[in-house]
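@channel sequence for tomorrow's demo:
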Amino acid sequence: MTAEHVETLIIGGGQAGLATAYHLGRLGRSSVVVDALDRVGDNWRRHYDSLTLFSPRKVDGLPGLDFPGPAMGLPTKDEVADYLEAYADHHGIPVRCGVKVERVRRNASGFEANTTDGTFHADNVVVAAGKVDHPHVPDFADQLDPHIVQLHSSEYRRPSQLAPGPALVVGAAHSGADVALELAATRPTILAGHRTGQMPFRLDGPFIRFAAPVARFATTKIVSLGTPIGRKVKGKIRAGGGPLIDPRVEDLEEAGVEWIEERTTGVQDGRPMLANGQVLDVANVVWCTGFHHDLSWIELDIVGEDGWPLEDRGVVPSEPGLYFMGLVFQSSFASMLLHGVGRDARHVANHIARRVAAAV
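C-alpha cells (generated this afternoon):
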C-alpha cells in the first residue's frame, strides 16, 4: 500500500465535496477528493427511478457552472449525476473513485486516513460522505411475515419490485411522500408517520419562475442558524425531516394515499402494528425511515449525544483541521440542497485557507 501527503483530503465526491474542492482551488489551495463509488454522481444514480428535484435548473447549479437544460425545468436524478460528473471534469477536480476510507485518526503532523487504496497523510480532512450507506430500519423489521416484501428507500427503484397487493410506506418526509404517491397509482397505499408540515406555496406549475427565487431566499436566509426560527427548527428537521415541498398533502389525498399519523412501532402476527394498536394487512413495506450517522471510522471524540458531529457550520472546534460538509441544516435548510451547498463550501474552504496561511 502506498502513502501520500495531501494538504486537504476530501472524503466524498458528491455535490458537497466537489463544491469544497472548487472553492479551495479558487483560493489557491490543493485538495484530493476520494469517493467509494465507481463514478462521480453514482450516489444520485442509485436513487429511485422517478426522482426529480423540486427546484428548477436555474437555481440548481453549483458555484462556477450553470446546470444545463431548460432553466425552469426540473432535472431528473440522472441529470444531476451527469452534471456532477461534468462539474468535476470542467473544473479539473481530482476525484479518485472506488476508494473507500476505512479509518481517520490523528498523527504527529495532522491526520492519517487509511483507505482501500493506500494511506493519506493530510493537514486537513473534510468529511463530505453523507450517511446514505447506513440506512435505518427498525429492529422489529425482521419479525414481519417473510412473505411481506420489505425494502428500505435506498433499495427502492420502482413499483415493479413489490409484490401484488397493498403497500405500507413508513416515514412521511420527502422520500416517503414521493414513494407513496408513486405506489398509489398501482395499489392501495398507506403512509404512516407524523406530518412535518409543508411549504406554504407550490414550486411547480406556472408560478415556478416567481416561487423558486422566493424559496431559495427563504431556505438560505430565513430558515438558517442566523435567525431564531432557523435555530428553533434545526433539531426538528434533523430528527424528523423537513416540510413537504413536492408532492404536497393535497397531491397525496388526490392520489388516494391513506395517511395515518401514527408511528409504526412493532409487529403482531407477522404484520406491522402502529402505535395506536392498529395492525395493517399489507403485502409490502417500504421503510422511508432515513439514515443514521456511523462515524466510528473517525477515531476522534467528535460525536455528540444526538449522534451528530460536534461542529459549527462544518468546522470542528475540538479537532483543528477536521471539517464536515453536506450535513442536514449545516448552516440553513438549504445546506442539503444543491443551491445551498456552495455557501457552506465557501465557508469551510475559507477557514481551511486561513488555517494553512497561519501555519506557514
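heads up for whoever presents: The mean pLDDT is 91.
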